[in-house]
Specification:
The protein is mainly beta. 10% of the residues lie in helices and 46% in strands. The chain has 4 helices and 17 strands. The chain has a 12-stranded antiparallel β-barrel.
């Protein structure tokens, strides 16, 4: 059995102690506002629906807020946003740097490592790092989301409407709210893997996340009831029918801790087949979208094979979810909508099917490039359509089409540079390949990986 060198052992102890200290001291996230991010979208929709108190002696300022009780769209949309913001695949966490030392464990002499055997760009790796092997990786990524179900988040294409519920019959005024939303998630990830045997690896992944939300809501009153007395519903108590409101919020803290294991089922020259398990624990603050708020267990198989100078790899897995999203995702903020409640919405976290496939090839003696496709199918989630905006009509553009599967697909192009036989630099760029759900923009990821 190969033993760690003194310097490697000291580094491992320091990293482990640091991670334990981080876990012991991080009891809550740092939030830049009082309200939780999980309720950000319903909150801005409700707050933008408040009009000036009527000068008729009757407070009509919450007539449109009352209309939220008949409109489940904002909270249903918020549920889908929360699911994706907390779980977007930002960086690979499985080790891809192996064969640094003699696999037979008879010597600690470093081995030369061909660049094209440095592992996949993004998908899980079917090989293990060897008995007593240690792999430490750090990664950083920043993701800005650009669209929702095909409608631009920052292009005034998401329109919701609320009817005046201050009247029980007859023509009602309608409020049209045009939403522009900026959603950003940044993540720093620390991953450690230990080779229990030549066939079994275990590891832990610790993410530190920052989530930022910014909105612009332009509200316009369409007076079907109060055209002769516009002061009843206005934003200035006189006649103003249009108002623009800006809101923002952010939070920083630890995400969901993951514990993972990989077992090599069989090996062949230039590849192998492995099984893996990944447990995601709800350690991140789901109140601020830093974590999912539910347990997830993923079981998967993955394989790889060298074909001439190329490495082909792929895998598939199924994620079992247990638990619910934070209640703030689907609840009415009490301080702005006291006395009103949203229709009940399912907060359950769906199961998922996951798959990856890719190719890697050498482009220099220590440099390889590759391209992966990473897909997720979420089952039993609400689906929506976004129709064209009609400027002169109080018509919503967001409509729910029912419940079904949601396919999220990204392509990942990347470079790997073997700085030394034991140190790997990785640069990835995630490219959206589908328009469903919350669509990410082009997402860069940088990582350093060291094997001992």
């Amino acid at each position: 059995m190969r033993h760690l060198s003194g310097s490697s052992a000291r580094l491992l102890i320091r990293v482990s102690a640091g991670l334990m200290l981080i876990g012991a001291t991080a009891s809550s996230s740092a939030r830049a506002q009082d309200a939780p991010l999980a309720s950000f979208l319903p909150r801005v929709i409700i707050e933008s629906a408040r009009v000036d108190p009527s000068r008729t002696g009757v407070d009509r300022s919450r007539d449109f807020i009352a209309g939220i009780t008949q409109n489940v769209l904002p909270v249903d949309v918020n549920r889908l946003l929360a699911l994706q913001i907390a779980t977007f695949p930002t960086a690979p966490s499985s080790p891809t740097l192996m064969s640094v030392f003699d696999r037979q464990g008879t010597t600690s002499t470093p081995l030369a490592m061909p660049a094209y055997r440095a592992g996949p760009i993004f998908g899980e790796w079917a090989d293990t790092i060897g008995s007593d092997g240690v792999n430490i990786a750090v990664a950083y990524t920043t993701t800005g989301f650009t669209a929702f179900e095909g409608g631009g988040l920052d292009d005034d294409e998401l329109v919701f409407t609320l009817d005046d519920r201050g009247r029980t019959s007859g023509a009602r005024d309608r409020l049209r709210e045009t939403l522009s939303l900026d959603v950003t998630r940044r993540e720093f990830l620390i991953a450690g893997t230990y080779g229990v045997t030549n066939r079994l690896d275990v590891g832990v992944v610790v993410p530190i996340a920052h989530v930022s939300l910014r909105s612009r809501v332009t509200s316009r009153i369409f007076r079907n009831e109060t055209a002769s007395n516009p002061g009843i519903h206005s934003f200035d108590g006189v006649n103003e029918a249009i108002q623009t409101r800006y809101d923002s919020g952010s939070a920083t803290g630890f995400g969901d801790l993951r514990v993972r294991a990989t077992f090599a089922l069989t090996r062949w020259t230039g590849g192998g087949l492995a099984a893996g398990a990944d447990l995601r624990m709800p350690t991140g603050d789901a109140n601020d979208l830093l974590g999912l708020g539910a347990w997830q267990t993923t079981v998967q198989v993955m394989g790889s094979r060298d074909v001439r100078r190329y490495t082909l790899h792929g895998g598939a897995g199924y994620t079992f979810s247990g638990g619910e999203l934070n209640e703030a995702v689907t609840s009415t903020p009490a301080d702005v909508a006291a006395g009103f409640a949203f229709p009940e919405v399912d907060r359950g976290v769906p199961n998922e099917l996951r798959y990856t496939a890719g190719i890697a090839l050498p482009i220099a003696s220590r440099v390889s490039a590759g391209f992966d496709v990473h897909g997720r199918r979420l089952f039993d989630v609400s689906r929506f359509t976004v129709s064209p905006v009609q400027d002169s009509e109080p018509t919503p553009t967001v409509a729910q089409t029912g419940t079904g599967a949601l396919d999220l697909i990204v392509g990942v192009a990347g470079l790997r540079v073997a700085v030394t036989p034991a140190l790997l630099f990785r640069l990835n760029v995630l490219l959206p390949l589908s328009n469903a759900g919350l669509k990410p923009g082009i997402t860069p990821t940088i990582a350093l990986e060291h094997a001992f």
